[in-house]
Amino acid sequence: MSYLARLDAVPETEKWPLLRGWLYSEPLPLFEELRRDRPVVQLPELDFCTRHADCTLILRRHNSFSVALYEPKQGDYFMAQDDTARHWREKSIMRSILDFEDIPAMRAFVGEEVARRLEDANGRIDFAHEIGRGVPVALVQHFFGFRNADPEKLAEWSYWNQQDAFHNQAFDAPGPVSSEEIIANRKKAGFALAFYLGRLVLRRTIAAKVGLEGDDPMSRLIRLSFSDALKFNLKQVLFNTGGLLIGAVETTSHATVNALEFLLTDPERRRAAEAAASNPAAFDPFVFEALRFRPAFPYFFRTATRDTVLAADTPHSATVRAGRTVLAVTHSAMFDPAAFPDPMRFDPSRDLSDAFTFGQGIHECLGRAIAAAMVPEIVRQLLLTPGLEAESAPDYGGTKVPQHWPLRFDAAGGSA
C-alpha cells in the first residue's frame, strides 16, 4: 500500500503519529509520493507541506506565517518576533557586531581546536559531545566574550533552550524527558545563564567605563548601549549575548554529525570528499550537499495568520486556515525536482541557493556566515584524520538530536 493509502486507513488520532514516524524513518520515498499526490496533508494537529514552492512561500511570507509558537519559549528575544521594529533593529545590530572579517580567524581556530582535541583523545572520541558541542562552545568562549565560563555549563544552557524551542511543541512526540521537565530545565538553564551574563556584563561595563575596552561582541554591545544612539539597553545586551551561545552549539553538533555520518557511510562519497579535503573551497560543497540529504531540521514550523492557498494552480490546491500550525517540510522541498534537478544524485557542484540549510526569509539563521565556515571545517578535519571509523551509529537517546557518537582513529595520526 502507498503511504497515503495507509494514512487514510487509520483513525484521525493515529494519522499524525504515523506520518511523523515516516518523516524520520523513511523520508525520501514518503516525500516523493506526497509531493506528487498530496503536497498539503491536512491533519487535525497541523498542515504538512512538502513542495519547494510552498515551503518557500511559508518561510518568506512572515505576515501570513508567524513564529508565534516560539514566543512562549524565547520571550522577548527578537527572533521570536516577526515584522517588528525590535526584530529589525536588533538583527541589524547583531549582524553588524559579528564581523565577517573575523570569519577566517574563526575557521582557523576551529581547525586547530578540532586537531587538538583529536590529539588529546588518543584514538577514540565521543564526536557529538567533545567536538560537535565542544568546539562551538570553545569558539563562543574565545570570540564572543565567554572566556571564563564553564564549557559544560554553556553546553547545558544551550541544550535545554534549544530542546524547548525546537523540539517541545504540542505536535512533538513524547521523549525520554517529559514536556514539563524540558520546560523546567529550560527555565533553570535560562536563569543560570542570565545570572552568569548579568555578572559578566557588569564587569565588562565597569571595564568599559574606565577605558579597559574589549573588542569581542559583548563589549561592542555594551558600548553601543551607552551611546543612546538607538533603543538598545543592557537588558537587550543580555538577551542577544545569550542568543549567540544558544544559536551556536546544538545546531552545529547536529549538522556536523549528520554531514559526517552521511559522508562516511558511502565509500565512494567518502573517497571523493577525502580527495577534496586538502582544499576547503573544494571540500565545503560536499558538506552542504550532505546536509541536503540529512538536514539538522527536516521542517520549520509556523502559525498561519490568514487563510492562504498552497499548491495553487494545481489539482492539489488546499487552503491553510488562519490559526493553523503549518510544517514547511524543507527536507522534502530540497528534493523537489522543480527546484533541484535530479535530486537523488549527490552532487557537490549543485547550486544550493534555494536550499533551506540556514532557513529563508527574515528568520534566516543569524550566524549563517559563521556556521558556513565552522560546520564544514569540523567535518573536514575529521576526514583528514587517518584511520577514522565510526564504532556505531549516533546515539540519539530517544531524542531528536545526537547525544553521543563514538569514533576511533589512528592515535599516532592527526589532522592536517
UniProtKB/TrEMBL annotation:
InterPro entries in the record: Cyt_P450 (IPR001128), Cyt_P450_B (IPR002397), Cyt_P450_CS (IPR017972), Cyt_P450_sf (IPR036396)
A Pfam family that the UniProt record links to this protein: p450
PROSITE patterns, sorted: CYTOCHROME_P450
Top-level taxon: Bacteria
SUPFAM superfamilies, A to Z: Cytochrome P450
Keyword terms: Heme, Iron, Metal-binding, Monooxygenase, Oxidoreductase
UniProt family annotation: Belongs to the cytochrome P450 family.
Protein name (database record): Cytochrome P450
The organism of origin for this protein: Sphingomonas tabacisoli
Lineage, highest ranks first: Bacteria, Pseudomonadati, Pseudomonadota, Alphaproteobacteria, Sphingomonadales
